[in-house]
User: What shape does this take?
Amino acid sequence: MEMVVLENEPEVLMENISNKGNRDTSAAPGLKLYRCVAVSFGLLCIIQVALNISLRLSLERDNLRKLNSDYEAGTKNLTEERDELKGKLNDYISGNEAKIKTLTGERDELKRRLDVLISGNEGKIKTLTGERDELKRRLDVLISGHGAEIKTLTGERGELRRRLDESQSQQNALIRERDELKRTLNDFDQLFQKGWEYFHSSFYYISSTEKTWQESRDDCVSRGANLMIIDSQEEQDFTRRFPKRMWIGLTDRAQEGTWRWVDGTLLQRSYWYSGEPNDEWGEEDCAEINYKDVENSWNDMPCDRQIHWICEKKMAP
Ligand code: 2F8
Ligand code: CA
Assistant: This one.
């Protein structure tokens, strides 16, 4: 029995191939077996491939069947819906057929009556149109014949309107002025009645009682005024008409030696009596009209002394 050495198989195989036809097949049983195994393996592979293909095809077929049945179901639903809608539409049309018919009839009747109306009034319409055209023509003639006159009148009307507006605004200004004067007159009247004196665009009030400087100032403020500010020779002379010692609106309370008026302005022109201000009582921080027989009549006094006072209310000049 011939031994088959498997590790030398390729060489043996080559030898077999090269000696094909020269050698008897029964002389190589190992090769036979090998062929048999190879053929069987090949067949098995083919069967496997065939089975795979068959399985795949079967799965595809099932999928297609399912898709087909889904499609058929969808189509059926749509068809049913379409049929239902068709039915509804038909019902609606047949239910409203009578109405449509009536409306159409009414429309035709109206058309007919309109035609009758127009044809019956054709003459009247024609006459009216003619009359309108004639009036237009006559108006044009009238306008063109009086063009210059109309132009003049229009110009005059414009001028009159302008003058009217002008006198209207003048009248308004006069009314405002009159009302303002009325108010002023009323104020004057009231102040005169309350005993105020008018001098150089201001009203003055001379008290009949006596108070401290601060109380006097408060009183003036309550009357819509303030203690008197003397800023002219005329005003200084005016104060000498009253034979009283009176507080005026001048003080150096805030800073000793710096005299200020009650409106905050610094004292410029002064009318101190000779030797004043002298702080004779230690602290004399408020000013009074004292020595009325002379032009320079002012004196500094302790603010808590009680004397008369003079208020001033400035009026518009
Ligand atoms: O009451 C205070 C007052 O007394 C005198 O005037 C009445 C003094 N005058 C003179 O001494 C000249 C003031 O200076 C003084 O303020
Ligand atoms: Ca003094």
Q: What stands out?
A: Residues 276-278, 280, 284, 299-300 surround calcium ion (ligand 2) (CB under 6 Å). The chain has five helices and eight strands.
